[in-house]
Amino acid sequence: MTKLKHLAACLSLLAAVGTGGMSPAVAQDDRQTTVQDGIKVEPLSRANRFISEEQLNEAAAQQYTQMMGQAQQKGVLLPPSHPEVQRLRAIAKRIIPHTPRWNQKATQWEWQVNLIDTKDVNAFCMPGGRIGFFTGILTSLKLTDDEVAAIMGHEVAHALREHSREKMAKQLGTNVAARVGGALVSGIFGIDPGITGTFANYGAQLVGLKFSRNDEREADLVGLDIAARAGYDPRAGIALWRKMAALDKRAPIEVLSTHPGGESRIKDMEAHMNLLLPVYARAKGTTAAKLPPYRTNVALR
């Protein structure tokens, strides 16, 4: 197995956890924590440099292609002509131009958006801008376009802020993760040809890991920021997570296993609406004071 294939095997497990110039107002890798209209984020990771961005993106591209190929073979990869695929790609087309505000490398990403026809209530964005949705999240939650944009923005934000790379680095600091880190290094440098089996032993632990509370907060706020700039109502994020919580009470859903919910998360979003709503209002050519109330398509309790 080549080095790239080893790295792709590593990435496939890590992806299951989540998955132009820059404005001078943006802080990036300079240890500043305040960026863009008052939203605070951590600097992009410097800790995980044993995997280059080129390696990571190339491996992600290979893994994504394999995943979509398998979905196509099973007849569950929906074609570009499908209305929901067109809907997702139209939303992404509006969101993507605003991503470099949070990571200027996004201008070089080869963005892709695909939809897999399964009941899974989930979505992801792999490094390099490779987005995947499952039909279950669209149908179970009866999502408006604004709510789809909130989900897409959230997942894209994880990729923009390089949370998976940061997680990989932090894992190396624990006893269990040290063993996983050894497997990662072996995979990258081709030392151990049996790495796939090694990773099988640790796969359950890896896919069960969650992003930190701060990573989720960043993904929420950065995701709503880029969605708002694209003309999608950021208040949809609040409605979205209330929908998810209501659905989870009836049957636990996968997306909530890796994305902690709760009122504290909603309160974070509400606390930033004074920043996000003016951005959205400007995109709509109006003011925040003149915005109508947000209306979802499902009664929330």
Describe this structure as you would to a colleague.
With 301 residues, this protein is mostly helical. It has a domain at 3-209. 56% of the residues lie in helices and 6% in strands. It has helices spanning 3-18, 53-73, 83-95, 135-141, 145-160, 163-171, 175-189, 195-208, 213-229, 236-250, 254-258, 263-271, 273-283, and strands at 34-35, 39-40, 112-116, 123-126, 130-134. The strands form 2 sheets. A 3-stranded mixed sheet has the order 3-5-4, sandwiched between helices. Strand 4 (123-126) and strand 5 form a beta hairpin. Helix 9 (213-229) runs parallel beside helix 13. It is globular and about 50 Å long. The N and C termini lie far apart (52 Å). Residues 1-9, 11-31, 175-209 and 252-257 have low confidence and may be disordered.
Strand content: 5-15%
Give the beta-strand count: 5
Whole-number radius of gyration? 19 Å
Shape: globular
Low-pLDDT regions? 1-9, 11-31, 175-209, 252-257
Helix/strand/pairing category? mainly alpha
The SSE string, one letter per element, is: HEEHHEEEHHHHHHHHHH
Sheet with the most strands: spatial strand order: 3-5-4
Quick recap:
By secondary structure, the chain is mainly alpha-helical. 56% of the residues lie in helices and 6% in strands.
